[in-house]
Amino acid sequence: AADAAVATLLALMVTDHGECSIGGEVPMLIYDARSGAVKVLSGQGGAPLSPDAIAWYMQHGIPAAGDVKIAPVPAVVDLCITALQQFGTHRFADAATPTLALLDAGREPWHPDLARTLRRLVETEARTPGSRERRLQAACDRFYGRGGGSDIADELEAFYIEEGGFLRKADLAAHVTRVEEPVTVDYRGYTVCKCGPWTQGPCLCQALRLLEGFDLRAMGASSADAVHVAVEALKLAMADRDAYYGDPLYTDVPLAALLSDAYTAVRRQLVDMQRASAACRPGDPYH
C-alpha cells in the first residue's frame, strides 16, 4: 500500500498538476496493519533559513499566490522516499515508472524537465551499492544536495535566484521528513487520526469533540439542525486554529487543552441552535 501511495503521489504531479506538484507539500498518514499503529509523515517544507528572507516576510507579509517567494522547500521527493524506506518494499525506479510514462507521452513544456529530474534519481539509485534503503537515500540526497555537490540542487538554486526567490541549497539540504504520532480523538466508537497542528487537521478533531454533545441521530441526517450544528462546530474549531495552530517546532500549541473535556464543554455552550454566528470566536485554552 505504501508503494502504491508513492506511485500515485508521483503520478498526481502530472495528472493533477496545480493541485499536486513536486514543489508542494504532502501530509501523509499510514496505518500499519501488523502493529495496529498509525504514523504521520510530515511532508511540509520549511521556509527559507536566510535572515534576509525572514526580514522581507516581516515587512511585506505572505506573498501572493504564484510568487516564488511563497515557495517552501519542496517536500514531495523526501516524503516519497521516506515512505518507501520505512513502509514500502519497492525501489524508487518502480514507483516512478508510471509517472515517467505519463511525462514521456505528455505535451506540457515542463514535462521533459521533470522526466529528466526523475531519471537522474533513478540512475543514482541504480549505481549505488548496498541495501535498498541506502540506494533510496542516495537518490534522495542527489535531489536535496546533501553530502556534497548536486546538479539538481544547483539547478534549483539557480532557478530560485533567477525568479527572485529566497530558497537556497542550504535550505534543501536541511530538509527532513519527520515521522510523528497522529493527533487522535475518539468519536462515537471510532478513533479519528489527523496530522499535527502544522496542518489544520486537528480542527476536525476539535469539531468532532464539540459534536459529541449533540444528538445528531435524532436531528436526522442532512437536516437543517444537523447541518447547522456541524457548521457552528467547525467555525469554533477554525477560530482556535487561526489563533493557536502553528509549527510545533517553533511554537507551543496547546493541543491537549484544545481537545480536553473541560475546554470542549465550555466551547459547546457557544453553539446557538436558533442563530448562526458571524463572529470569529477563539477560546482561551490556557485558562
Widest β-sheet, arrangement of strands: 1-2-3
* Count of β-strands: 5
Q: Quickly give the structural class.
A: mainly alpha
Low-confidence segments, given as residue ranges, are none
Query: Beta-strand level of the residues, as a percent range?
Result: 5-15%
Mean pLDDT value: 95
What is the element string, with H for helices and E for strands?
HEEHHHHHHHEEEHHHHH
Radius of gyration: 22 Å
Overall helicity:
40-55%
| General form | globular
Counted by DSSP, the helix tally is 13
Report how far apart the termini are: 44 Å
* Biggest sheet statistics: 3 strands, antiparallel
Folded structure, characterized:
The protein has 287 residues and is mainly alpha-helical. The strands form 2 sheets. The chain has a 3-stranded antiparallel β-sheet, with helices on one face. Strand 1 (26-32) and strand 2 (37-43) form a beta hairpin. Helix 1 packs antiparallel against helix 3 (76-87) and helix 9 (202-211) crosses helix 13. 51% of the residues lie in helices and 9% in strands.
Write the layout of secondary structure elements.
Layout: H1 2-15, E1 26-32, E2 37-43, H2 51-60, H3 76-87, H4 92-105, H5 111-127, H6 132-144, H7 151-163, H8 169-174, E3 178-180, E4 183-187, E5 190-194, H9 202-211, H10 216-219, H11 224-244, H12 255-258, H13 261-268
Antiparallel strand pairs: 1-2, 2-3, 4-5
Question: Can you give me a brief rundown of this structure?
Answer:
By secondary structure, the chain is mainly alpha-helical. The chain has 13 helices and 5 strands.
